[in-house]
Design goal:
The chain has 325 residues and is mainly alpha-helical. Helix content is 71%, strand content 0%. The termini are far apart. It comes from Pyricularia oryzae (strain 70-15 / ATCC MYA-4617 / FGSC 8958).
């Protein structure tokens, strides 16, 4: 397709890229102008790529933050909830006393059911991370299966260990990226936000692989190692408590887990572990909020003279617990 690029001006390649390093160094000394222009062009492209990465990450965060506020403001402006087919405000009087089914069911749930919902939401998030990581590693999984079915006898003798390691690394790194980007957060959010997190994690992983391949290629050719800017792994879902700090016990456990991880992957694993602790802290805050809400309801019933037997038993149990302390 060289004639096509000559006519229509396709992407020009560096004519000196495949030369011997010593010959290239000689040409660089004799005629540095052209090489300097090529290097400047390469640096300019890398700078543009970095700026594009920063803008993409910022856009994803802005989209997530604006989604919830825009949906709420749209409901207020039109006077109808999102369940209405007519968002222009028609039949608003029919929707005036509407309450979502989830809100009605939430009022009729027992304390145990509410607690189960919080724990199930966290458990579901952990399972969804596994599914999302598998989806992002579909190509690596296909290569593994194809090797087992159609690979050479040498590959089958090693049980396709090369493909297995490639898939396992993809899965573990994708899971770490998903956790770091906030996928474990149990706050309600639209499916589009989960898709944004999943796509961003996949893009970061493949960019990391491209950088590693470029470094390995430079080592094999005995060229200077390329320098890359660190990957921007900013959580798309903001943490509930931005001042969250690990306890001594958590930090000790984290260091024990990091000791089993290769040094090159420890930084990313550390961020993933911190994301796990933040998610657990969110669950703990929700459980505390449930207990506080139940205590307020119990006090309200007591003042109104509608205290139930369960309320009395609960009050006696708390009183005895306080005395024991």
């Amino acid at each position: 397709m060289g004639w096509y690029e000559r006519i229509f001006g396709g992407k020009a390649a560096d004519p000196l890229e495949k030369l011997d390093p010593k010959l290239r160094e000689f040409l660089d000394k004799e005629s540095p102008v052209k090489l300097q222009k090529a290097q400047e062009e390469k640096q300019r492209r890398e700078q543009q790529q970095k700026q594009a990465d920063v803008k993409a990450a910022a856009a994803a965060v802005q989209k997530t933050e604006s989604h919830s506020s825009s949906s709420t403001s749209a409901d207020k402006a039109s006077g109808v909830p999102k369940e209405s087919l007519y968002q222009d405000g028609r039949y608003a009087h029919l929707w005036k006393n509407y309450r979502p089914l989830s809100e009605i069911e939430g009022e009729s749930k027992t304390d145990h059911e509410k607690l189960q919902d919080v724990l199930e939401a966290y458990k579901s998030r952990k399972e969804q991370i596994g599914r999302a990581a598998l989806e992002n590693c579909a190509l690596e999984q296909f290569e593994w299966r194809d090797c087992m079915n159609n690979g050479s006898w040498e590959a089958k003798l090693t049980m396709c260990s090369k493909q297995v390691k490639k898939f396992e690394r993809c899965y573990s790194m994708q899971a770490r990226l998903l956790k770091t980007l906030g996928y474990l957060s149990t706050y309600e959010r639209p499916p589009s936000v989960d898709e944004d997190i999943q796509m961003h994690a996949d893009a970061l992983y493949h960019r990391m692989i491209e950088q590693e391949e470029a470094i390995e290629k430079a080592k094999a050719e005995k060229k200077p190692l390329p320098q890359f800017a660190p990957l921007l792994i900013k959580p798309i879902i903001a943490a509930e408590d931005e001042k969250f700090q690990l306890s001594q016990e958590q930090r000790k456990e984290m260091n024990q887990r990091l000791a089993k991880i290769p040094e090159a992957e420890r930084a990313m694993e550390e961020e993933a572990i911190k994301a796990e602790y933040r998610a657990k802290a969110e669950v703990g805050h929700k459980i505390q909020d449930l207990w506080k809400e139940n205590e307020k309801d119990r006090e309200k019933r007591k003042k109104e003279g509608q205290e139930t037997v369960l309320d009395k038993v609960s009050g006696m149990w708390k009183g005895s617990g306080g005395n024991d302390k």
